[in-house]
Amino acid sequence: MKISYVKPLHSWCNLGNNLPLIIAGPCSAESRQQLWDTASALSTFDNISVFRAGVWKPRTSPESFEGAGTIALDWLFEIKKQFGFQTAVEVLSPKHVELCLKKEVDVLWLGARTTSNPYSVQEIANALKGTNAAILIKNPINPDIKLWLGAAERLLLANIQKLALVHRGFYPFEPTKYRNIPKWELIIDLKTQYPSLPIICDPSHIAGNTRYIYPIAQKAMNLCYDGLMVETHINPNEALSDRNQQLTPSQLKKLLSNIQYCNKKENKRHIELIRLREKVDSIDMQLLELLHYRMEIIKQMSAYKKMHHIPILQLKRWKEIVHSRIKRAKELNMNPDFIKALLEVIHMEAIRIQSQEQSENKNNQK
Ligand code: PEP
Ligand code: MN
Fold this sequence. Notes:
2 domains, 8 strands, binds phosphoenolpyruvate, binds manganese (II) ion
């Protein structure tokens, strides 16, 4: 992919050279008052350049709130004129592009579901040809980096030069701490491969909960992301979408003043080591989540074995586990002794958990 003609972020946002771009605003545009009050509170900050709001929301359930719709573009126009923000809106179709450009929306973004659909991306790219719009591309739902880059390529081929990617995490198939798995290691590879392609982090959709937003945003800054998009609502408790993950303006202010911005010079010196460490951290966290999930399943097995009077230790099954895992380890060129030792530790813990579960059940029945 040729990305040499992507414009650096600071050339099209009201940004100082080395400062990250901060985009804030509610998940959804709900009412004129809600948008106005949120924007008015954010206008007292000196580091927010773009005000975001989802005007049309692609929701999982048709019964969920789907944004106020086209009328909200008028509210955003008033906000732009009053407070001097650039405005940002998610677009899902060429019609949305047309409506947004008519109301002078500065930044359009493709949501995770849209990026997952190359046909929609192409239609939107065609509608953008010849315009001066800035586009943000959220990562697709699945960790398919080629699909994400393919969307960027379609927009570049339509001569869009104000372009940035937004990392909002990937759908977890197992239960995890975060709403979406960050998979930082994938982004590190992407940044290494395409250093001039700006990347913004959306800690709100990774976290799914306000309590994790700060550490995720800090991590993004440690990795020298180019900006943050943080969902902010004047009254999150009453928000009509993504209630658990929206900060109040004063929470955002605290976050932005506590966060340590990336020291690009220092980071550049040891960038390779920093990237490798971050990859290892990210993989360890995923290993832990998977081990936790494995042990939860062990507990369910324990209950089943108890009900059907099956002993905890099944030698035949244990031999099969060791055999199949070592076979795979060899294919991966891994030391079979290490894998065997690791499996034994995991197995011992699984037996301990099952014994404990069963004795607790016994005690409860007494
Ligand atoms: C959003 O930003 O409100 C949104 C819907 O995000 P995503 O497309 O990342 O789910
Ligand atoms: Mn949202």
